Amino acid sequence: MELTRKDMLKLGLLGSAALLLPLERAARTRPKLRNRLPASRLPEPFQVAFAAPPVLSPVRSDATTDYYQMTMKSAGVPILPGMPRTEVWGYGGNSPGPTIVARRGRNTVVRQINRISNPRHRWATVHLHGNASLPQYDGYANDTIEPGFYKDYRYPNEQPARTLWYHDHGVHVTAENAYMGLAGLYITHDEHESSLPIPHGKYDVPLVLRDAVFGKDGQMIFDREERGSLFGDVILVNGRPWPAMKVERRKYRFRVLNASISRGFNLALSTGEPLTVIGHDGGLAPAPVETGSMRVGMAERYEVVIDFEKYKIGDKVVLQNRGLENNEQYASTRQVMRFDVVGDATKTADNTIPDDLRYDNPEDNEVMDLDESQAQPVEREIRFERGNGMWQINDGTWHDVEASNYRKVVADPELNGVEIWRLYNNSGGWNHPAHIHLVDFKILDRDGKKPFPYENGPKDVAYIGEGEEVRAIMRFKRPGKYMIHCHNLVHEDHDMMAQFEVGQGGPDPLSDPARPLAEAPPL
Amino acid sequence: MSVTASRVQQEGPHSSPTGVPLGSTVRREPVACAAASLSLVAALIHLWIMPEHFAHWWVYGAYFVASALAQGLSSILVIRWPSNCFVLLASIAGNLLVIVTYVVARTWGVPFGPGFGQVGNIEVLGMVATAAEVGTLVAMVALLDGAYRRVTLNGILLAGALLWGLTFWDTLP
Asked: Which of A164, A500, B46, B107 could link A186 by a cystine bridge, Cβ 3.0 to 4.6 Å?
C-alpha cells in the first residue's frame, strides 16, 4: 500500500499544478490590486464641493463654424482629499474634459492633439457620441491618433438639441483611455429647447457619473488582464468623489451621463420623491415621465428634473445608487452625491415642466414617431454573446472586421431605410449596453413587453439585461460604415464590436487619418 | 515460511529500486478514513460556495452540487469498500476532473458557460478544497493495487504534465 518515491513524484506533478498554477497566475496578473486603497481609507462622502466641468471657448468662429482645440495630455489632479494628486489622461488635462456647448445649425471643428506622454498610453481616437458624424469623423476605432499626432474632427450639429459626450474609442484601448479620463460633455441647444420654460443656465447642470479604483498612492488602478468588468468603489461626479451641491428651492435640470467603464447605476432620491425624466440620449422626450428610480447604463444620458421646492432650507437629499444585477456593489457605491438645500430660489423663471416637449417641426420628432409599419419587413438580429474566449457580436469580433480589411459588416441597411433591430443578449449572467453609432432609435419593447416608461425617448444606447431581447426601430440617414458595440468598454476592447454599412459608396472611415503635429496648419 | 516470503512480509510489496522500504506496512482502514474525510471536506466546501455560482448561472450551480454529491458519496463508498477498484477509480477520475477544471478556470479561464474565458479569483476556500481533493487522490491511489495503480498514476502524471505544459505554452511570447 505504500507509495514509492516514483509514485509521489507523479502525484506531485499534479498536486503542484493544482495548487501553484492558480497562485502563480494570480500573482502575475493582479499585482496592482494588492495596492488597492482599503475601504477604511476612502474619503467620507459629501465632504467635497460640487463643481461642473469647465466650458471650452472656441479658438475662433466664422459665419458657419466654431473652431476648438484640445490637447490630450496626462496631468496630476487632486481627486481624493488628503491623497497625492492623481494622474489622469484628460482633454486639456481635465477629467472630465471641458464641455463644448454648440448651437444647432452651426458646425464645429475640434482639433484633437495627442500629447499623452505616459508609456502605457498607445493611441487615442475621439468619438462624439450621439452625433450623426461622417464616418471619417466618427471616431472609427482604427482611425487612431498616436502621441505627437493631431486630427481635426468636423461635426455637423444638425440634430435636435441633446446631451452628447466625446470620449475615446481607440481600438483595444478604449477602456483604459476612458478610465484614465478621456471623456467630456458636448451639449447642443436649439430654438425649441431654449424656448421651453424648463431650467436653463445655472439650473441646467451636468452630472458625469463614473466609478474608479484607487491605490494607496492615490493613483487609479487599471487591470489590463481583466476581461469581464471593472468596478470601482469610489463614485466620482464630474471628477469629484461623492460631492455635495448647494441648491435653491426650485427645479433643477440635471444632464446625467454614466461615463463608467462597466458600472450601471440605479438612481433614486433618499427622500423617495420622484425624478422627472425630460430627455434622453437623443434629446428631449415627447413628454416628461416621473419615476421613483431609474437605471442608467454605461454611456446612457438622461435629462432629469428634481424639484427642491418641496424641501425646507437645511434639508439634505442624497442621490442614491440602488445597484443593478451583476454589478459589484460596495457600501461606498450606494450613494452618488448629496443636494443641500441652502436657500429660496433666486430666479423663478424657467421653473416649469410642460406636459408636451415635442417639436413643432414633425421631422424633429421623427424617431419617436417611427412606426413598425414603416420598417423593412425583415428584422435584423444582433446577438451579443460569448464565444471562443471573446465577447462577440453575431459570432464575430472586431478582429474579424480588421482581418477582412474593414469589409465585414453585420448589417447593410439602405440609405434612409427604416429597420427594426432585435438586440439579443445571449451571454448568460452579463449585461450589455448596446450602442449603435449614427442613429437615434426608439425602443419598441423588452422581451416583448413595453420598455420602462422613462425610456420613452430618442436613444442611442439600449441596456440589454441578462438574457434580454430589445427591439428598436431606427432610420439610417447617412451612408457609410459605422460601429455597433457593447458600452461595457472592457467588452468592447475584447472584442465585442462590429460594424454596419448604410447604403453604398459612403466615405471611408479611414480616409482622413491623423497627421504629425509638426504638419498642422493654423486652425 | 520461506525466506523470500518472510522478506516480502517485512519490507512490504512495494519498495524503492534499492530495495529499501519507503514506509512501514500501512493498514487499509486509516488510509480509507483519510480519503473519506478529505473528500467530505471538499464536498462541504462545494456545497457552501454553491449558491453564489447558482446566482451567476444555474449550470455553474448544478456543477457544484454534482461535485459535492459525488464527493460526499465517494467518502461513504470508500469507507464501505476500501478495496473496490471501481469505487476508487471512479472517485479518482471525478476528483481529477474537478481539479483540472479548477486549475483551468483559475489560469486560462472558465471553460464553459457565460463566464467562458473569465479567470476566476483565487479564494481560500477554493484552495482548501483543491488541497483536499489532491489529498483524496493520494490516499485513493495508495488504496489501489497492482496494474490499476500503475495505470492511474500514469494518467495523473499525464494530467499534471498537461497542466504545466499548457501554462508554459500560454506564457510563451
From this structure: A164
Local confidence band at B167 (pLDDT 50, 70, 90 cut-offs)? confident
End-to-end CA distance of chain B: 63
Which one of A4, A21, A23 has the shortest CB-CB distance to B163?
A: A21
Q: How far apart are CA A229 and CA A250, in angstroms?
A: 39
| B11 in a structural domain | no
Averaged pLDDT for residues B58-69: 94
Contact between chains at A19 and B134 (C-beta distance less than 8 A): yes
Contact pairs from chain A to chain B, CB under 8 Å? 137
Lowest mean pLDDT segment, chosen from A213-222, A512-521, B45-54, B82-91:
B45-54
Residue A275, pLDDT score? 98
> A183-227, pLDDT tens digit by residue?
999 999 999 999 999 999 999 999 999 999 999 999 999 988 777
For residue A25, the chain B residues in CB contact (below 8 A) are 106-107, 119, 122
The per-residue pLDDT for B11 is 38
Q: What is the pLDDT of residue A31?
A: 55
What pTM, to 2 d.p., does this model score? Answer: 0.80
Question: What domain range is B71 assigned to?
Answer: 26-171
The CA–CA distances, whole Å, from A59 to A138, A200, A223, A519, B80 equal: 22, 25, 37, 19, 86
Amino acid making up residue B128 = V
Q: Which amino acid is at A280?
A: H
Q: In chain A, which residue's Cα lies nearest the Cα of B96? A: A14
* CA angle, residues B152, B157, B161, in degrees to nearest 5: 150
* Percent of the residues in chain A that have a pLDDT greater than 90, as a whole number: 90
B16: in domain: no
Q: Decide if A451 contacts A278 (C-beta within 8 A).
A: no
The type of residue at A316 is K
Which domains does chain A possess?
60-193 (2.60.40.420), 201-344 (2.60.40.420), 363-502 (2.60.40.420)
Q: What pLDDT, on a 0 to 100 scale, did the predictor assign at position A469?
A: 97
| Residue B9 near chain A (CB below 8 Å) | no
**Does some domain include residue B120?**
yes
Q: What percent of chain B has pLDDT over 90?
A: 56
Whole-Å CA distances, B173 to A73, B6, B169, B170: 31, 58, 9, 8
Measure Cα distances from A452 to A19, A290, A457, A462 in Å: 48, 11, 11, 11
What is the distance between the alpha carbons of residues A168 and A222, in angstroms, rounded to a whole number?
16
Is A425 within 8 Å of A469 (Cβ atoms)?
yes
Residue A108's DSSP bridge partners are A66, A155
> Can you give the three-state secondary structure of A8-59, one letter per residue?
HHHHHHHHHHHHHHHHHHHHHHCCHHHHECCHHHCCCCCCCECCCCCECCCC
Spatial separation of the C-alpha atoms in residues A268 and A346, rounded to whole Å: 26
Round the average pLDDT of chain B to a whole number and report it: 81
C-alpha grid cell for residue A324?
A: 443593478
B141 touching A, CB under 8 A? yes
Residue listed under C-alpha cell 474632427: A153
Per-residue pLDDT band for B63 (boundaries 50, 70, 90) equals very high
- Identify the band that residue B4 occupies on the pLDDT scale cut at 50, 70 and 90: very low
AA identity, residue B22: L
Domains: count for chain B = 1
Count of all residues that appear for chain B in the document: 173
